[in-house]
Design goal:
The structure holds two protein chains of two kinds. Chain A is mainly alpha-helical. Helices cover 54% and strands 0% of the residues of chain A. Chain A has helices at 31-36, 38-47, 51-55, 59-79, 91-97, 102-113, 124-152. Chain A is elongated and about 80 Å long. Chain B is an all-alpha fold. Chain B has one domain (3-60). Chain B contains two helices and no strands. The chains are: A mainly alpha, B mainly alpha.
Chain lengths: 166, 62
Amino acid sequence: MPGDVGAVRPEPIGSWSTSPWRSATLPRVEPKRLARRLPAILLAGWVMPGLSHALIGQRRKGLYIGLLLVGTFVAGLALGDFRCVSWERHPLTFVGQTGMGGLFLVGWGLAAHLPTPPTPARLESLGLLYSAVAALLNWLVVIDVYERVARMNLPPAPAPKAASKP
Amino acid sequence: MTLAELFAQSLPICVVVTLVMVALEEDEPRPYLKHAARYFATLYGGIIAFALALYAIDHAFA
């Protein structure tokens, strides 16, 4: 239509319909359906970093974030000899590490079952830092998914009114 | 821990924080690198500046 020439349809911020992070093969999921499944999506993102982004249609971004966070957390565990997730020895860091969900439980189980060495690992403090930062970042990732789904469900912005002539 | 160790050890974590935070903020690849470079410079520069300031204070009052 002639009246539509040059008109720009407002796209919500962070819209995944045009985003290159989104997998082209993934079918579009209805925002309302996503909102109904949001608790499960957020839980999945807590258990496995990046999974919540994948579930809302941003598969590439989810994979990217998941690889980064899992890699950093596992590197932290390795630096701490797989014994650095411990409530008894590092209670504050332990609280931070809870953000990693599934891997946190694995690390906790490893720390509980492996024998405690007489001296801590040489780079244990660095391992604690890496694992805690990765886990805290995962909280932000989960919050980001919540925000994205909430934005998808916003009502469309009203069209700007034409300036009234005096 | 020496300053060199601190800078070396905080470098990878700054890279990871930058990559994740900028990926969350950006949906387009075009401004991504510019944004990431600015984010990293601010984060790592801030850590270096803070560490140097603490080092200087420590030496001034030693």
